[in-house]
Design goal:
By secondary structure, this protein is an alpha+beta fold. It has 18 helices and 48 strands. The strands form 13 sheets. The chain has an 8-stranded mixed sheet with strand order 26-25-33-29-34-31-32-30. Strands 35-39-40-38-37-36 form a 6-stranded mixed sheet, with helices on both faces. The chain binds 2-acetamido-2-deoxy-beta-D-glucopyranose (NAG) (4 copies).
Length: 837
């Protein structure tokens, strides 16, 4: 009996000893020694001694406990490393947390708070990653917390900003290097002059500005706004000003870090891939550089071939010489003779911008847009205005009186800036932008005129081309390159230079490779011509796209395609190897992919069975990566505009590659949503706003992507699907979705081993979100990527999708007349619709 009790006692003691090394608290009697680890209650975070990579120095830090890659989010003794393993972290009688060596000779770090010394002080590591020094036994009051002294990481739940009562302004600073968590040269902090802004500093120099708070997010970070993953809040009251964000699902790990190279990155942990994946980062391109284009200049990356610096409306370069040499730093000045104080002066709107630095502005939160304009108008020294909080009806008013610096444009997001100009300048802009009624008038009056004009133009062009072609048929290759240079300027030159092997093929090489375009080497017929398989002399297989002369793909589109594809390199995009240009012939030479388009698989019963669900899901994710690259990650933002199953090619391992960028268009300058005269796309994949109004944006690609996803899952073409009650596939899916029967749409060949109902349903859900009627409801490809790789986050419920296609009536245009004729027959043809604008 006695023996037994001793034994039990022994077990109890050893258990509690063991337990003491993995509790979440440090007390007076329970210090933390090197080797011990503190783990938070739900085991999200751990605190202990660590050594960075390539270093033997010891630091006390907090890291993610469940993330397999060591990820330190906070460091105590950043600049005073411990060189041996004698470190101890404890609380002392003064009520401070202290890091010292065993002999208490050295203090490496301390919380340094002035406390009434007491013995009930304790330290606890919370599941948020916050380390708190509590003053009392009940843990009601604290005297210090690690969230107030961030290292290089902003965690969910942290307040990033100023505590007005204590004057504490939290600053995030980079590490010195990968192996040294010491305070580095980059600092990210909030400043409060004018209106609140965040700046990234390198030493004392501003390198990037987040812009001001717009109500949804920061004016300069269009990627990061309030959405269904992040709850971003900005608080400005009597006690504090801060921005904070929460992850709606607490099992997702996401952090914002300022890395050693001065990049602000938001990263999310993907357990499946076991790595941190970037969500957004900045500074990203040259337009992010602080004050890149000087006072009254603005930076615009979306007008290829031109200098990224531009002057705001009504301004001209301070020094045309510098401007010509592409140095924008001196900025712009008011045009000579401008009379902005006379009657007739007004404002020009610049949309989708990061508004200029607000540190010299006045802000009045009680004014709305009209009152804001009024107040700026009344004051001759006011050079422009913008709404402070675009999420509100009365959004407040920011007015500028001095230099407007660090303005840039985005292809989406941002907000509008209104710039004061004189009557003459105003007239220029109002004639560019017809009002709604004028637009309509144009539609009726202008259409026949435009049609006549086009015909004349085409004749003239044709005539000129023919003459030119006759004159210099020998050295066309060279003249083609020259003409590119003269049109696109050094932009192209530079990018062609970067692009190592864009090959110019001889006509004779191509003729030999394709056996003189023999029927047997023909792979297919695309929207703009035929595709042939060729074998070069060295045995390399290529695909040659021979653009048909009648296709309407002119020189312009051809150049577009060559330059675009040459620049874009991604494993989910078809690689362009070179081109050939010979008198009237234009050809593009691509890598050859042994498998044909995705359409040959998914719409075919027999071949469809080669693609099980796992494979199809991989294909969907590959397409997402490719599109994400086009929309966001490549230096140019590109809209594909003709995404469809037959434009997704599969390589030998059935990996998807997006092809056919002929119509891709670099986002035109001041337009994220552009309007185009020529609507080019494929029936059944075109978003309603694009087909009907010629409006395209990344969201029109998202729409086509949504259709594609639903086709991949169902194995059916959108328009070939006629149920009694539904207009097409989307209509059908929507009907089933509303009745919770969406899985019934799934291709029966998919119901094999790899079928994952949850995943399939999620993909259908994402597909429906992508085809919603309103472009603004549709997610971006970044959102889609996130939704697909985090299988357990909640998705928003979709609104009514657009399934309009049978009701379309394009009116008088002759190209479209043939479309309404036979839906099925032209389904896969790329079509062109002309719009007046
Ligand atoms: C550890 O280093 C400190 C100096 O940083 C020294 O005072 C102490 O004696 C060393 N302890 C051991 C065990 O080597
Ligand atoms: C967002 O977070 C704040 C707290 O920071 C909370 O008050 C608010 O309810 C949250 N909003 C949503 C929609 O979750
Ligand atoms: C804001 O504008 C209103 C209306 O013009 C005015 O009464 C108020 O004084 C202004 N507030 C500030 C802080 O300028
Ligand atoms: C949050 O994500 C986890 C796993 O990532 C999942 O188990 C859980 O259901 C999700 N919760 C919500 C509310 O989405």
């Amino acid at each position: 009996m006695f023996q037994n009790r001793r034994f039990l006692l022994f077990i109890f003691i050893s258990l509690s000893l063991k337990f003491s090394t993995s509790t979440d608290t440090i007390t007076l009697l329970q210090p933390l020694q090197d080797g011990d680890i503190l783990v938070s209650n739900k085991e999200n975070f751990a605190l202990g001694f660590f050594s960075p990579r390539n270093s033997s120095n010891k630091y006390v830090g907090i890291w993610y406990n469940k993330v397999s890659e060591q990820t330190v989010v906070w460091v105590a003794n950043r600049d005073r490393p411990i060189t041996n393993s004698s470190g101890i972290l404890s609380v002392d009688e003064t009520g401070n947390m202290v890091l010292h060596d065993k002999d208490q000779k050295f203090v490496f770090w301390s919380t340094n708070v002035t406390n009434i010394g007491n013995y009930s002080v304790s330290v606890q590591l919370l599941d948020s990653g916050n380390l708190i020094l509590f003053q009392d036994r009940n843990r009601n009051a604290y005297s210090w917390q690690s969230f107030d002294y961030p290292s290089n990481t902003l965690l969910p739940g942290m307040k990033f900003g100023l505590d007005k009562k204590t004057g504490l302004n939290r600053v995030i600073t980079s590490w010195k290097s990968n192996g040294n968590p010491g305070v580095g040269e980059y600092a990210y902090k909030m400043e409060f002059v004018g209106s609140t802004q965040l700046y990234l500093y390198k030493g004392k120099t501003r390198v990037w500005r987040t812009g001001s708070w717009t109500g949804h997010g920061w004016s300069g970070v269009p990627e990061m706004t309030q959405n269904f993953i992040f709850n971003v809040t900005y608080v400005n009251n009597n006690d504090e000003v801060y921005v904070g964000y929460l992850i709606r699902n607490s099992s997702i790990f996401s952090r914002l870090v300022i890395n050693e190279s001065g990049i602000v990155e938001r990263l999310t942990w993907h357990e499946a891939d076991r790595r941190w994946i970037g969500f957004w980062s900045a500074p990203k391109d040259q337009c992010d550089g602080y004050n890149e284009c000087g006072p009254f200049g603005f930076c615009d990356l979306y007008k290829p071939g031109t200098f990224e610096c531009n002057c705001l409306p009504g301004y001209e370069p301070q020094s045309p010489q510098d401007w010509y040499l592409r140095d924008g730093t001196r900025g712009c000045k008011r045009k000579v003779g401008a009379e902005i104080c006379l009657p007739g002066a007004g404002f020009v709107e610049l949309a989708r911008v990061k508004i200029p630095d607000t540190s010299t502005t006045r802000v009045n939160m009680s004014l709305g847009l009209e009152a804001c304009k009024e107040s700026c108008h009344k004051n001759c020294t006011c050079v422009g205005y913008a709404v402070a909080d675009i999420s509100k009806e009365i959004g407040g008013c920011i007015t500028w009186y001095k230099d407007m610096i660090d303005t840039r444009t985005f292809s989406y997001g941002g907000q509008s800036l209104y710039i004061r100009v004189d009557a003459a300048e105003l007239a220029k802009y109002s004639s560019k932008k017809p009002s709604n009624s004028r637009r309509k008038a144009l539609l009726y009056v202008g259409m026949p005129l435009i049609a006549v004009g086009l015909v004349v133009c085409i004749f003239i062009l044709f005539y000129i081309k023919k003459k030119k072609a006759n004159r210099r048929s020998r050295d066309v290759g060279v003249s083609f390159i020259n003409s590119l240079k003269s049109v696109e300027g050094s932009f192209l030159e530079k990018d062609m230079g970067e692009n190592v092997d864009l090959h110019v093929f001889d006509m004779s090489t191509i003729v030999a490779a394709t056996d003189n375009f023999s029927l047997s080497s023909k792979l297919g017929e695309g929207g703009f011509g035929s595709v042939y398989k060729g074998t070069l002399l060295n045995g390399q297989e290529v695909a040659v796209k021979r653009l048909s002369q009648s296709s309407g793909q002119g020189m312009h589109e051809f150049k577009n395609e060559v330059t675009l594809i040459a620049k874009l390199q991604h494993r989910n995009l078809v690689r362009l190897l070179g081109y050939c240009f010979h008198t009237e012939e234009k050809m593009l030479v691509y890598e050859y992919l042994p498998n044909k388009g995705l359409d040959c698989f998914i719409f075919d019963q027999e071949k469809g069975s080669l693609l099980d669900w796992k494979k199809r899901f991989q294909i969907i994710r590959g397409i997402v990566r490719g599109l994400l690259y086009l929309h966001q990650d490549s230096r140019l933002r590109i809209i594909h505009r003709d995404l469809k199953a037959s434009n997704i090619l599969l390589d030998a391992d059935l990996n998807p590659k997006i092809s056919d960028f002929g119509m891709a268009k670099i986002f035109g300058g001041d337009q994220a949503e552009a309007t185009t005269l020529r609507v080019v796309g494929t029936y059944g994949y075109m978003s309603p706003e694009y087909a009907m109004e010629g409006l395209f944006s990344v969201k029109s690609d998202v729409y086509s992507f949504g259709i594609l996803v639903l086709e991949i899952i169902s194995g059916r073409k959108n328009n070939s699907y006629y149920m009694e009650s539904s207009v097409n596939l989307i209509g059908h899916v929507w009907d089933l979705w509303k009745q919770d029967r969406a899985l019934e749409v799934v291709d029966t060949t998919l119901l094999g081993d790899s079928f994952d109902a949850h995943e399939v349903l999620r993909c259908i859900h994402v597909g429906i979100l992508c085809v919603q009627e309103l472009a603004s409801d549709r997610p971006t490809m970044t959102d889609v990527a996130f939704m697909l790789s985090n299988r357990d986050t909640n998705l928003p419920s979709p609104n009514q999708p657009a399934f309009i296609f049978r009701k379309l009536n394009y009116g008088t245009d002759s190209t479209t007349a043939s479309i309404s004729g036979g839906v099925g027959s032209v389904y896969d043809e790329t079509i062109t619709i002309l719009h007046a604008r």
